[in-house]
Every structure is written in C-alpha cells, then in structure tokens.
Specification:
- The structure holds 2 protein chains of 2 kinds.
- By secondary structure, chain A is α/β, with parallel strands linked by helices.
- Chain A has one domain: P-loop containing nucleotide triphosphate hydrolases (Rossmann fold).
- Helices cover about 25% and strands about 25% of the residues of chain A.
- Chain A is built from 6 helices and 10 strands, in the order βββαββαβαααβαβββ.
- In chain A, the strands form 2 sheets. A 6-stranded mixed sheet of chain A has the order 6-7-8-3-9-10, with helices on both faces.
- In chain A, β4 (about 75-80) and β5 form a beta hairpin.
- In chain A, α3 packs across α4 (about 135-140) and α3 packs parallel to α5 (about 155-170).
- By secondary structure, chain B is of the alpha+beta class.
- Chain B contains 23 helices and 22 strands.
- In chain B, the strands form 4 sheets. A 6-stranded mixed barrel of chain B has the order 3-4-9-6-8-7.
- In chain B, α1 packs across α9 (about 305-350).
- The longest helix of chain B has about 40 residues, at about 250-290.
- Chain B is elongated, with a radius of gyration of 33 Å.
- In chain B, about 45% of the residues are buried.
- Classes of the chains: A alpha/beta, B alpha+beta.
- The interface of A and B includes residues 72, 95 and 102 of A.
- Bound molecules: adenosine-5'-triphosphate and magnesium ion (MG).
- Magnesium ion binds near residues 61, 62 and 178 of chain A.
Chain lengths: ~250, ~775
C-alpha cells in the first residue's frame, strides 16, 4: 500500500518528483477526543501528472490535500515540495509557497462576492510572480464573455470555472482541487473537468483532484484510494479518458 | 485599482447605512472634541492677548486709605515694576423705571490720559475729560441691559447725596470679565455696574483727597510673587490693608478659570462616550463582516495573501469609515467651535475673539478616533488574520444551542417555538447580547446626562434659597455699626423681621493651602440665614469655632476638628487659630460661618454688625428698595428672588448649551446602536428566517423572532441604562464643581422617563426599518447560498 516505488511509472512524465510524503500523520484534538485524520501516508506525485483521490467521507482526502497545499501542517511525518520541507516551514514560508507555487480550487468556489469574475482572478495575479493575464485565464475556462459579472450573476458551474481560472492564472506548478464538481450536476461538472484537463495538458501543471465520483477517476494518470486516513490502493490508468466521455 | 481595494470600496458601499451610522457617531465625538477644545484654546488665547494688550495687573491690594506719598515707597519695593494707585468705592445707583436695588463700583481713572494698568477697551464714546466732574464710563454689559448710551445720565447716591452722572463712554476691562458684586454668590450684570470716573472728583466725593485705597502692581521680571505680597502687606498694614493677592485670587480671573476648567471637563467627558460607542459599533459590524467572509479570507490565504495583508485589508475598511467621521467631525467641530466661541466671547464680553484651532487638537481628534476604532476591532481582525485557512474552508460548524435558562427552569410549556428561538439565541451568545445591551444602556445613560441638570438646578435653588439663605433682602453697611442700626430697619413699612449679621473678609489657611473668602457671622438661632448639614438639617452654630462649607473644606483639605488659621483682612487684621466645628452642605459659594458674637470676639470688637437680613412683605418691596437706597449707611443690597433668576440665567448660558448638544447626540447614539444591532441580527439570521418563511411562517411571525429579541434586549437595557446614566451624572457632577456652584446629583422620574422614551423610540424606528427589510427578504437568493 506504500506509494514509495510505484509499480508502473506514470506515463508522459520525466519522473520528476514534485511532492513526496512519508509517514504523514494528522491528529485533530477535539477536546477529550483525538481524531486521526491521517495515519501515516506515504506518497509521491510527479511533475505534470493528473491524479484523482477517491475515498469515503472522512477518510482524510481534504486533510491530505490541505497539507500538500500548505494550508495545514502535519502532526507527524514529513512532506516535501521539491527541495522544500513543508513540515517544518514557517507560516511565512508557507504563505510564500502558496503564493508562488500552488493553485487551489474549492468545492464551494469561494469567490469574493463583491468582485467581478475578472477581478476575482486579478486578486491572485496581482500578487503572483509571473502570472498570465487575468483575461487570458478566463478565456482558458471559456468565460471571456462573463468577465464583468459578479459571482451572484453566475451559475455554479461558471463560478467554479472562474475559481479554476483564478487558480491557474498564476501559472502554478501544482493545482489542488477539493471536490471541484461536488456542487455541480454532471454536465456542468464535465465543463469544469475539461478546463482542468486542458490546463494539465497545455501547461503541464501537476494536478490533484479530490472527488466522490469514481467515474472521474478515468481521466487521471493515477488514482489514489483513501480509507480511514491511509492510502489503501494506487491504480495507474493505462489509458486516460477525455472528460466529455465520462458520466456519473 | 488593486482588486482588494475594489473589494473594500464595494463592500463599504454595500454596508453604507451602517458605515454612515458609525461615521456619524465618530463625527459627533470629533465635533464635540474639536468644538470644545478649540473654544477653550480660543478663550485662553483671547484672554491672554486681552490681558496683555489692556495691561491686566499682576498683583492687587485694597486698603482703607493711604496717602499718595506711599506710592513711591511701594514702587521701591524689590520686585515691583510698576505701581498704579486708585480710589475705588461702592455706590448706590438709581435708574428711572427700575426699582430693584442697583450697586455700582466707582473706579478712578487718571484725570488725564489712560491708566497704566487695567486699561479700558472703549466700545463707544470716550474716556472722561479733565475738569468735567460728573462724567463716567460705564461697563458694557450693564449699559446694554439698561439701554444706556453715551449722553445718557444716571443718578448715584454718593455718601448719601444724590448726584447725576453723565455717561461719556461704554467700555470693557480685563479686570471685570466676570463681574461679581461684593457679597454676591451669582453675577448680576443688570444690578451691578462698574463706573469709571476721574480721580479728582472721586477723591472729593469720598473724602479721599491726596489718598488712595486700591493698588495695582506689575512685577519685575523674575520677581517672586509671594515675597512681594508679604512686603506689600507689611507696608499697607498701617493703612488698613486687606491683604494683597495675585491674579489667581482676583475674582474675575478666578471664576473665569473655574468656568474654563468646567468647559475642559465637558470637552473631554463627552467625546470619550462617543468614541467608546463608535468602537463598540465598529466591533460588532466588523466582527460580523469577518464572520461572513470566513471562507473568502481562507481562500485569499490559500492563494498566498499574508496574515498582515489580510489584517490590513480590514483595518483599511475601518480606517475609511473613521476617515469619513473624522473629516466630517473636524468640519462640524470648527463650525460649532466658532459658534460656541462667539457665544462665550459674548457672554464674558471680551472685546474681540481670536479663534484658534491648534493643529494638535485636530491631530489628537484624528489620532484618538483611529486608535479607538482600531482597538475596538483589533480582536476581530486578528482572529481573521490568524484563522488557519484549512479550518476556515470547512463550513462553520452549526452553532451550539441548548435549552435556555427559562426552559431549564421548567417554563418551556409557556414558550412557543419562536419564543424559544429568541431566548436560546440570546443565551447562546451571552457576550454579544451583553454588549448590545450595554450599547443601548450607554445611549440611555447619555440621554440622562443631557437632562438631569434641570432637576438638579431646581433642587439646588430650593436648598440654597429656600432652606438656607431664606432672607428676602440682605444688605450691608458701609462700616461696621452698632446693633442699634437694626431699629431703623425694623420700623420700615413692610419689613416683617430683621436680623443682624457680621461679615468679615478673611484668608483661611490650612497646612500649605489658603483661600480668600468671607466669614458670615449670624445669630445662633437665626431664622433667615441657616447653615445646613449634609442631611439638610439646620446646624446650630457653636459658641466657638467655625463651620465651613463642604467645597471649601475639600479645597483646603479640612475636616471637622482641624484647626485652621483665620487671617482677617479688615480692621486690626487679627490672625487667629480656630477649630472647624462642622462642615455645612452648600451648593453655592465658598462661605464660612460663625456665631456673630464669636466673630465679634475674634475681631476684638463690641456687639457690632456689618449688615442685616430682612424678611419683607413683597407688596412693599419697591418702597423698601427706595428707602434703602436713601439710607447713607446702607451700601449693598442683595435680593433673593433676583439672585435665583440670575442663577438660572448663568447656567442657561453655559451648561445648558452642552445639555442641548448632548441630548441631540445621545439620540444619535441610541439610534446608531439599536439600528446596528438589529441590522446585524437580520444579516446573521436572514438565512434562518427565510427558511422559516419558506416553511410557511408569515412576515409577522419571523419579525417576532428577530424584533422580539431586540425588544427583549432593549427592555433589559433600559434599567441598566438608568444605572449607567446615574454613574455618568455622578462623574460629571464631581467634575463640574466650581467655587461658584456645585450641581448636586438629583435625578427626577421625568429624566429617567425621557431617556427611556428616546431609547424606545429609536428602537421602534429601527424595528420599522427592519420590518420593511424583512418584506424584501429574497427567499430564493437566501436559500441558494450556503450558510
Ligand atoms: N478541523 C478539524 N477538527 C477536527 N476534526 C477534523 C477537522 N478537520 C477534519 N477533521 C476530521 O478528520 C477526518 C478527516 O477529514 P477530511 O476533511 O480530511 O475528510 P474527507 O475525506 O475530506 O471527507 P469528505 O469527503 O467528507 O470531505 C474526519 O473525521 C474529520 O471529522
Ligand atoms: Mg473533504
């Protein structure tokens, strides 16, 4: 169940390790009770690959993703992003890390209600190192027409695409998506997944997607199965399917 | 524009109602602060330049009579730069068509040219001309109140002889900014006049040829005031000197100081209230925004915004609101300040106004607002900045509710579901509920401050003039006289009762403190002049020892049983230790009291009086005034009913202006707090309420849940506000004490009722506004978003 040495190398990568986690443990203290969200996770993610994480509710997917993205810190174990040890990084270093390297997409979009689609993207490009133009990022997700609309004027799928544009606009090296289609119907979900797939393919962004829909796993290079705070299975897809062929 | 900046302005626009309410409260605080402090600065500056330009003397001395030759010896005293001698005398005036007794103070001017010190600012006309014996210059306040102008004349009874004086000028003097007739507790501009007259005719009218009875000094640079006073006193002792004194004991200067001190208290106390309320409002509003934007904040952090950047973003939001408040407040403050300064300048009759707005005042107003606002919101902002992003991303856990206390007490079967929602919601967030209540209570309290003085002043007047100084007329003689003088008073028609009194000017010393005042000697069983204890029971004056007024006691730090030194400033000027037998409660003045016979013994004199208290039949009033006017020995006449009127007028000019402003601004606070509390409650619970609407609840039913909570908080807050108000009033009462008067803490039911009414009214208005917003509640929109 260890992902230390994957049985088969992911296709289309130079086998460059982007993330590497060892013995990752996360314990939440809830008053008297300890919640073991992660119980020793080992994993490696390679440059340019697209992985999907599956698992029942409460299995620790979000926790893992948050630690990879520098939003949370592990209780024990180690996680590295390239040469950088995220486990021991200071809050300041994690902020920098997120600012320059990571793009996030959340289940509930988390757009800023008082800003238009374009401005929501600009919030990120303004502080990034070498961002693309905010309008280009929106074009990439097919929303050029809606630049000046506020979140409240967009459908859920459109909001999620704005969120993706926002996440990719800084040209991040990794894109972390926590249930990006969770709040969407399947047709809209496919539009969102297409946007993610396109970014992964065209920009080579290492992408991790959490989902509850096993069907989505077919578009991944590799699929991680989580249960009870552990990675129980890693599957390599010999052939990736295009999102528009998926259904759930 | 940066995206975050746009976010800031858009959100500000969305919350413009609330932002405006907060900005208004800040505006009020800044405006009062700037208004009062700039007025204060302007008054100080104007007074200073007035003093300088018109050469207000630095040392003053009155005496019985000294030959002009002494002037040279005074000049030769070390530390004296300039000496001016004058003749000053009291005179009774007779104005046609004005029956009340009018006293004048005749002050000599050099026969030629201007005086060296205490110069006159001529408003109209000219100074007296040499050789014209009956010319006078009259002070402006008196002239205006009687419609006197140069060319008019008035009759004076000088040494028993009626003499006609012609007014040639109307003037102001730095010496008489505040005019208090000798023996009076309240200024009376209509019945006390200052008349400046040439020296020679004044000398001859009062048998003072070649002599003087009043000295003004300017000190040499670096001279020690106390040493000069001691030397001057020694020199004047043989000539009936009454003790030299510096500006701080000069009546006009002293009372002006007291009033300015009072103004400073008001200038600081009120802004404190406003700034606290503003901080409170900002706190609830910003906390709410931050709670709403939990996830936005988390995603900003996920994208790499630092804690600092996020903290600053919300601080900016606060600062923009503050900036609007401060800018508006400065403008209003300057405008009001100029107005208030004008009022005071007119009231004190300064010749001109030098309005100053010190940059420091504006700066501190801005700084205080910013600091208070940021402090008020810092906790919420800090929490936002430090929120762990991963946690914030998870939806906020459902609030923890439990059965409310009333339900646990077993009352639940009396409570409907909506009522349970109200009680549980209040109990769930006790701190927030408590803060809202406190805010409303503060508003209620401020309203009481604005109003209590009316009650207090009535009470003061009742105690002072109905229970303590009960005489209808108090009069003083030119010289101490035998008690027999009372017989002629008793025979006047309309006089019902007469009592003799002995009044002696003294300096009281205790430890290193001293105070110049007057000892009133009255009969032990006096019916007219009674001294009251703190329970307002008449105090029987002891055979020995002195009873002093509570404020004087506090000023000197004296308690019953202490021994004080009395330096008599009249006659043979004995200096004697005396025991303080008791402390008397008095709201006016700084008097001390003794048995008349004990005072006579202290003065080493016989059975002597210097004045009398009269009870008269009011039908005979005018006749008695006229009779008194014609008695050569009677000089000062004080009428109780007039004193009461003057007292109200004085307070109306100063304190009541503030009262008015407080009332208006207190209502602003009440509305600001209640409306904001309601608005926030609506924002927080809109989702829940819309859900209930979807379930079939009517608008009235959901309004009950929301407004019921507000009503409950308001109703509990009102009694709390009464306590707050009492506390505030007590604080102000303690700080507003002056030597002239002390406002007691008296709160009548109508004050409570008025405060409660204003709070209820603002709650109702807020409720109506919320009701209308409930009607616009967009059910679908609310349900579409996740909360
Ligand atoms: N802040 C927290 N405090 C306490 N427990 C937490 C916290 N965050 C997560 N947990 C617990 O850790 C475990 C893993 O949570 P996590 O959010 O990673 O699950 P998940 O796999 O993402 O589930 P889901 O599919 O429902 O999103 C759960 O049992 C959860 O209750
Ligand atoms: Mg999750």
């Amino acid at each position: 169940m260890s992902a230390d040495k994957p049985a088969i190398s992911p296709v289309g990568t130079e086998n460059q390790v982007v993330f590497s986690a060892r013995g990752l443990t996360k314990i939440y203290q809830m008053g008297e009770v300890q919640v073991h969200a992660l119980r020793g996770v080992d994993l490696d993610l390679y440059a340019g690959e697209l992985v999907v994480m599956l698992g029942p509710s409460g299995s620790g997917k979000s926790t893992l993703l948050n630690i990879l993205g520098g939003l949370d810190t592990a209780s024990a174990g180690q996680v590295r992003y390239r040469d950088q040890d995220l486990t021991t990084a200071s809050d300041r270093a994690l902020t920098e890390y997120r600012r320059y390297h990571v793009g996030f997409v959340f289940q509930f979009y988390n757009l800023i209600a008082s800003l238009t689609a374009l401005e929501n993207v600009a919030v990120v490009t303004e502080i990034a190192d070498q961002p693309m133009r905010a309008a280009d990022a929106l074009a990439l997700v097919g929303l050029s027409e809606r630049e000046n609309h506020f979140p409240a004027q967009l459908s859920g799928g459109e909001q999620q695409r704005v969120a993706i544009a926002r996440a990719i606009a800084k040209n991040p090296e990794v894109l972390l998506c926590d249930e990006p289609t969770g709040a969407l119907d399947s047709a809209t979900g496919i539009l969102v997944l297409e946007a993610l797939e396109r970014v992964n393919r065209e920009l080579g962004t290492t992408t991790a997607i959490i989902t509850h829909n096993a069907g989505i796993a077919a578009m991944a290079d590799r699929v991680f199965q989580l249960a009870d705070g552990r990675i129980t299975r890693v599957r390599v897809n010999a052939e990736k399917l295009a999102p528009n062929t998926l259904s759930w | 524009m940066r995206a975050l900046t746009k976010k800031l302005w858009r959100e500000l626009w969305q919350m413009r109602g609330q932002a405006l309410a907060i900005a208004l409260v800040i505006l009020s605080g800044v405006a009062i602060f700037v208004m009062s402090l700039s007025t204060l600065d302007s008054l100080y500056l104007t007074r200073q330049s007035y003093y300088q330009e018109y050469r207000f003397a630095e040392l003053f001395a009155e005496l019985k009579r000294a030959p002009n030759g002494l002037q040279a010896r005074i000049r030769d005293l070390p530390g004296v730069d300039q000496v001016e001698t004058r003749v000053v005398a009291l005179v009774k005036l007779d104005l046609p068509g004005f029956a009340d007794p009018v006293t004048g103070k005749l002050v000599s001017l050099p026969d030629r040219g201007e005086p060296l010190q205490n110069r006159l600012y001529l408003r109209h006309g000219r100074l007296v001309a040499p050789g014209r014996n009956n010319e006078v210059v009259v002070n402006e306040a008196f002239a205006n109140l009687h419609g006197l102008a140069p060319g008019d004349s008035l009759a004076a009874i000088i040494n028993g002889k009626r003499q006609t004086l012609t007014i040639v000028g109307i003037a102001l003097s730095p010496e008489y900014i505040y005019q208090l007739a000798p023996g009076a507790t309240v200024p009376d501009f209509k019945r006390f006049a200052i008349l400046w007259m040439a020296r020679t005719p004044l000398e001859s009218a009062y048998d003072m040829q070649g002599a003087f009875n009043d000295v003004l000094l300017r000190l040499a640079h670096g001279a020690d005031r106390e040493t000069v006073i001691t030397r001057l006193d020694r020199l004047l002792e043989r000539y009936g000197g009454r003790g030299a004194y510096a500006r701080k004991d000069q009546v006009s200067h002293h009372f002006l100081n007291e009033e300015l001190r009072q103004l400073r208290t008001l200038a600081t106390a009120f802004p404190v209230i406003f700034f606290s309320v503003a901080a409170f409002l900002l706190n609830i509003v910003i906390s709410r925004i931050i709670a709403l934007q939990r996830e936005e904040i988390a995603s900003l952090k996920a994208f790499g915004y630092s804690n600092l950047a996020i903290g600053l973003h919300y601080i900016q939001l606060v600062l923009v609101i503050v900036a609007f408040g401060v800018a508006g407040g400065l403008l209003c403050g300057v405008w009001l300040g100029q107005g208030l300064s004008e009022i005071y300048i007119g009231f004190y009759r300064f010749p001109y106004l030098q309005y100053v707005l010190q940059p420091g005042v504006m700066l501190s107003a801005a700084l205080i607002s910013v600091v208070v606002a940021v402090l008020g919101t810092l906790y919420a902002i800090r929490r936002a900045a430090l929120m762990p992003p991963a946690q914030a991303m998870r939806p906020e856990p459902p609030a923890v509710y439990r059965a409310a206390l009333v339900e646990r007490l077993g009352l639940q079967r009396w409570l409907s579901q909506p009522t349970r929602m109200i009680t549980r919601n209040i109990e769930r967030r006790p701190l927030k509920s408590a803060l809202s209540m406190l805010g409303i209570a503060a508003a209620c309290g401020v309203m009481m401050v604005g109003n209590f003085q009316g009650d207090a002043i009535d009470y003061m007047v009742d105690v002072q003039f109905n229970r303590s100084q009960r005489e209808d007329i108090a009069l003083s003689f030119t010289e101490p006289t035998s008690k027999r003088a009372l017989y002629s008073l008793r025979t006047l028609p309309g006089v019902e009762y007469v009592e003799g009194a002995r009044t002696v000017p003294v300096r009281i010393r205790f430890e290193n403190r001293s105070y110049r005042t007057v000892i009133y000697g009255s009969e032990p069983d006096s019916q007219l002049s009674r001294v009251l204890d703190s329970e307002l029971r008449p105090v029987v004056l002891p055979d020995e020892g002195v009873v002093i007024n509570d404020h004087l006691g506090r000023t000197l730090g004296v308690r019953p049983g202490d021994q004080i030194i009395l330096e008599v400033l009249e006659g043979s000027r004995p200096i004697k230790p005396v025991v303080v037998a008791a402390i008397a409660k008095q709201y006016l003045g700084m008097g001390a009291y003794m048995q008349r016979r004990a005072l006579n013994r202290l003065m080493q004199e016989g059975d002597v009086i210097s004045g009398a208290y009269l009870a008269v039949d009011s039908d005979y009033q005018d006749r008695i005034y006229a009779e008194l006017r014609d008695m050569p020995r009677v000089v000062g006449t004080r009428v109780r009913s007039i004193a009461v009127k003057n007292f109200y007028a004085i307070l109306a000019e100063t304190i009541l202006f503030f009262t008015f402003i407080t009332t208006v601004l207190g209502a602003t606070i009440a509305f600001g707090v209640v409306y904001n509390t309601a608005r926030i409650a609506l924002a927080e619970r809109g989702h829940e309420l819309a859900s209930l609407r979807v379930l079939g609840f009517s608008r009235g039913e959901i309004a009950y849940i929301l407004l019921g909570e507000l009503a409950l908080l308001t109703l509990v807050a009102i009694p709390l506000g009464f306590l707050v108000g009492r506390g505030l009033c007590a604080y102000l009462v303690a700080r507003l004490q002056t030597d002239l008067y002390r406002v007691p803490l008296v709160l009548e039911p109508d004050t409570y009722a008025f405060a409660a009414l204003v709070v209820l009214l603002s709650a109702t208005v807020s409720g109506v506004m919320i009701w209308r917003q409930l009607g616009r509640l967009d059910l679908l929109a609310v349900l579409k978003t996740r909360e």
